[in-house]
Amino acid sequence: MVSKFSSYLRETSQELKRVSWPSIAELKESTLVVLVTVTVITVLLYAVDWILNLGMQTITKALA
Q: What is the structure's pLDDT at 2?
């Protein structure tokens, strides 16, 4: 059990050395893309929710 765990740690360490880490500029750019995408999706979902809510209110008022 201990030898498997130490082997796992060794292999993980070796694998992390082969990883291509992004530069600070790439990281900032990717973060900006994610934030803009999340903001756009949030606004769109809010608009759809508002429109559906308005429709449901209209239907319930018409049936009452």
A: 86
